[in-house]
Design brief:
α2 packs antiparallel against α3 and α7 packs across α8. The chain is α+β, with helices and mostly antiparallel strands. Strands 1, 2, 3, 4, 5 and 6 form a six-stranded antiparallel β-sheet that branches. It is built from eleven helices and six strands.
Length: 280
Amino acid sequence: MSVDLLVHLGYLLMLCALLARDMLWLRLLLTLAQCALATYAWTHELLAVTVWNSLFVLINSGWTLLILRERHAVRVPPELRAWHQSHFAALPAAAFLKFWRQGQAQTVTGARLIEADHEPSLLYFILRGSVRVHRDGRELAQLPAGYFVGEMSLLSGRVATADVTAQGVVELRAWSFSWLRQVRAEQPLLWSQIQSVLGYDLVEKIRRASSDPIQGVEGASGGGESAGGTAPSASVVGGAGDSGTEVAAAAASPLPGGPAAASGLGGESSPIIGVPAGGV
């Protein structure tokens, strides 16, 4: 192959890199392209072009190694594996562990987690025990282990429209809204994966309530299991007059294009759904 063909090969590889959707392939192709261009420049004694392309090769090689290390088989610890598979499957293992480690373990007894008409500061995930969703002395629902609390306020930006109180001893994982909003601004890929997890949680609540209205009207007492069990079966249901359309709109609007948002948060009216439109 003539050395002069290296310049054409380099630019062809660069074109393929610009068409690549995967970041790893983009970095690999750019590395190969700049290797070819650096070799061409060296044979033609183009020192400046050789130096610059060699520098680009080093930068892209470093990024390639970082991406490969991030994608290397990450093992989720056994105690978290069931949670990951059943509730956080939209997050790859590395992203799940990153997200999980940003949370704080909390154990509360009878504490109020969220106050109505106030914006929550934390997103909760129930690990053990259950919480009661209530407003003005009226119980709207009970949530067992395996559900998020506060996700609709996070996604919609609205204040909570109900109180959430722990029933007895409850083990939780909590993430600050400030960190989650920082993720939304700076890490769009991770945020979209978190949105899918939260969207699944919302869809599951609506689906459970719709499939078992009798249980929901009676308070949606828990049937969910802790890590390692099946998906929780408690419904988020309230009394007459609550609008499922409002719930769906509040849940779906912040999830553009997300798989969970598209799959179950449409505009059908479901009067048995009792999740307050502003979220809890």
